[in-house]
What does this fold into?
Amino acid sequence: MILAVRVIIYTGKGGVGKTSVAAATALAAAQRGLKTVVMSTDAAHSLGDCLGVELGDVPKQVAENLAAVEINSYRELELNWGAVREHIARLVALQGLDEVLADEIAVLPGMDELFSLARIKDLAASYDLVVVDAASSGETLRLLALPQTLSWTVKLLRRARAIVKPFAAIAGPLEDYLAPEEVFEALDEMLTKLRSLKSLLGDTVSTSVRLVLNPEKVVIQESKRTLTYLSLYGLLVDAVIVNRVLSKEAGYLDGWRLRQNSYVDEISHSFAPLPVLKAPFYPSEVVGLESLEQLARDIFAETDPAALLHRARVIEFRKEGGEYLLCMCLPMLCKEHLRIRSTGSELILQLDNQRRIISLPPAMAGYRPTRARFCDNVLEVKFTKSN
Ligand SMILES: Nc1ncnc2c1ncn2[C@@H]1O[C@H](COP(=O)(O)OP(=O)(O)OP(=O)(O)O)[C@@H](O)[C@H]1O
Ligand SMILES: [Mg+2]
It folds into this structure.
């Protein structure tokens, strides 16, 4: 399905320039005539400061064709998770834990940002382009795994409820532990929302992620991992933006500039075939529309900032001679760290502490993985009919 809206998500390590690059992209796209909104899902908002305006939870017009919004993540969390949080907190408190602590435990870290991301769906109806200034890499990644983990937990809770419910009538206090129907309703609603967000994020025609990084060793390492994980989650990364590149006349920072040069080379090499765009280190902060215009010009020059800058195959199922083949593009994957197992209806890829569950098409029921190979950044898993 081709959606009318285009979504660009900027992520990267803390402080690399995500907010500046996101705002610059949105401004440049708006100036080219796209009805654009730039939204910040990072709880510590700085989008308003960057644009030089006060922003809130409702999109505010900041330039022609350009609106900006800072999502109130606490409000989104309450709206989507309030009923569930209360139930979990009650369960935890029943174990004798302090109520404040129980409240804390009832919210998974990063969940607030996940629900903020879900607002993309609402904005998609009113804009041609949604540019997302997301939280730094680690956060975003955890969020993307959440819908899969949650739907599994809900299945488990439902099953447990069905088993335990008949006994609740006999052993009264058991009732306290059972989730009331409204909790399941809230969970269902939330999962529907998250699934639709996931399908939007996984739509490689409409949505792409761009990695912002600085030419520094640690930042490059983290960005490589982010690229692998994003691919693992089925997202399309279409560009890498190297921000704060020192220019020719770096003065006393010249030694630093030379080191940066070799890092910029490493980035181009490591992230190939992704396009690598660069932005210079300016003598002052990037604040206000004029500076953002300059930043966009330096990054994109004549390139359309809203274009899909690279199309890579992310995941594909093929059938060959009675066998199924699942192909996944996993750049920079270190195959030694990857573990693969199948539950029949799902394939589970475990990479370090990240997990990706791939639902297998119903036609593949009765097939099991028999061989995996990793070649040219593509992981191929072969499925053979089990006897
Ligand atoms: N190319 C640049 N040259 C000079 N200053 C820059 C450049 N890019 C960003 N900055 C400045 O660096 C600071 C951090 O940038 P920004 O807020 O965009 O990073 P961020 O990745 O969004 O940070 P956070 O992870 O805290 O959200 C800001 O003050 C911004 O104006
Ligand atoms: Mg930021």
User: Anything to note?
Assistant: The mean pLDDT is 84. Residues 9 and 132 are 5 Å apart (CA to CA). The radius of gyration is 23 Å. The longest helix spans residues 137-168.
